Each structure stands twice: as C-alpha cells, then as structure tokens.
Amino acid sequence: MSGLVADSSRSGGPRAASRGSAKIDSDGPDDPSATPSQPSLRRLQQFNVRPDRELGQNFLIDSNILGVIGRAAELTEEDVVLEVGGGLGVLSEYLAERVAHVHVVELDERLRDALGDATDSHDNVSVHWGDAMQLDIAAFEPSPTKLVANLPYNIAAGLILRTIGSYPAMTRWVAMVQREVGERFAAGPRTPAYGVPSVLAQLSCEVRVVRTVSRSVFHPVPNVDSVLLLLVRHEGDDATHELRELVRQAFAHRRKALAGSLALAGGRGPIKADGTRERVRAALVELGHPADARAERLSPEDFRALARLLEL
What we know:
Layout: E1 4-5, E2 14-16, H1 39-46, E3 58-60, H2 64-73, E4 80-84, H3 90-96, E5 101-106, H4 112-119, E6 125-129, E7 146-150, H5 156-166, E8 172-178, H6 179-186, H7 196-204, E9 205-213, E10 218-219, E11 226-233, H8 241-250, H9 258-264, H10 276-286, H11 300-309
Parallel strand pairs: 1-9, 2-3, 4-5, 4-7, 5-6, 7-8
Antiparallel strand pairs: 3-10, 8-11, 9-11
C-alpha cells in the first residue's frame, strides 16, 4: 500500500528534552545560577551537558511534541516501548508513566547521569548502553511491541527497516526523523524520493507523515527540518526475506531497467543467474508494465506480485 502524507547506533538527531519551551543560548541556560523548572534545562545545567555537534545532537524544547508523539503512538498500559536515543530522558519519563515497560537505548556515555536522573525512579525502564544498530534487541525482555523515539538522524532509516524486518512482534513506529527521510518512507511510485525504504516499509506497513516539525523547536537549532513519521504494521504482514532482497537488487542500479538491475546481481540474490533478464521482462509484461520498466515504476504490491511470478 502506498504511503500517505498528512500535513506533512549513533546518537545524533533532535532529542526529546523538555515539557516546556524556553530560550537558551548555544551553551546552556541564559542564567547559569538559576535552576530551570523544565527537566531538560535543569539537566543541561545540573549535569553540565553540552550538545555534541559531531553527533548532531539537538535537544527538543517544545512541550507540545510529547503529546503529539503519545497520541500518534496510541499508548496503552500493556505496551512495551523501544526508545532509541534517550538523550536527557524526558521522552523516557513520558513513556514510563503510560506503558508497561520502556527499553531506552543510548550510545553517548556522557549522558549517563542525566538519563539516570530521568529513569532511575521508574522500575519499568531498562536502559541499554550501546549502538542500537549492533545491540541484540531480540534479547530485550519483555519484547518491544512499539518503537517511539526521537531517532538519531544517521541511523533513522536503517533502524526502522531493521526493526520492521527482524522483529515481527513490533507493530507500530512513531519516530522523529529528518524530513527527507520521512518523505522517502512515505513516497509513492514514480516520484524522486521513491526507493528501497519506501517499498520495504510499505510492503509491511501503512506509512504516514503525521506532521512537520520546525527546526526552531530544537536547541541548538539544526540545519534541517524534522517530521513525525508513523508506521503501522499490516495484519498478516507476509513480506519475506526473498522479497526484500528482490526490492534491494531492483533499485541497486536505478538508471537501468529493472530486469537489467536484477541480472547484474548475478545470482547473488533470490533469483538464479540463468535467464534472469528474460524471466523478469516476461513477468513485467504480465503485470502490465513495459518489459524495460525501471524499479521506480512498480508499486509495493507490484513487487509482491513480481516475486510470486518469479516463484521466490
């Protein structure tokens, strides 16, 4: 199903950091001698936290976003939530008060004290230190059913696709991501943003950009805009490993015809090398596409049908 656009591990992306808005300078609160009431500003000051520009850290200072995230996530008391990029722990606190358990993943060891200040009082929070792209999330107990996070930008797409493909118990994703990433996931066929993330996500999920988020709500102000991205897994999701590999290889050479791109895989994927080009061309014609169609022309459902015709 094609994505729908509404009004639009390494630590990195904007982090949920406050339940209230406040003006702060590039290094901390305006008045270092004051004790801010907002948790984010208090932790920035108390634990001498300085956003790491190399990691792209930008802390969220708009209280309204937490409510928007929570409503999109449709949180219940039975949920087990995975949050990647705990940061200063304000989203962690928000989640802990509403769900059965929260698994918080954070890479930046400098945030141990600040994140502990937010989570130590909640016995339903487990903090995992390390790279979310390397940790064995399948071993987390209890098993996560939803991902709710302000994702580090440089792992956002990869992490979402990894959790969709590897953790079938996970049914809903609500993530703050770079605007280009969100639009890529929700893009439809024959658009510039359409590609592997679009197809892989939409084969398994309904995908929607919930809203755009102005860069002005972050400290320090990032160089990019963000969006809140929602994915909901289809009931009976049957996207196989072979289907996903077919999609990846189909887009591996975007300027070439799909049949040619698959032929270049040389049998390294789900399709045998012998006769690949001819088989794919015939299947495309059967699906109502030109024999020399490129991957960007096919919808996610077309790829599913192509896999069936190729007996993958």
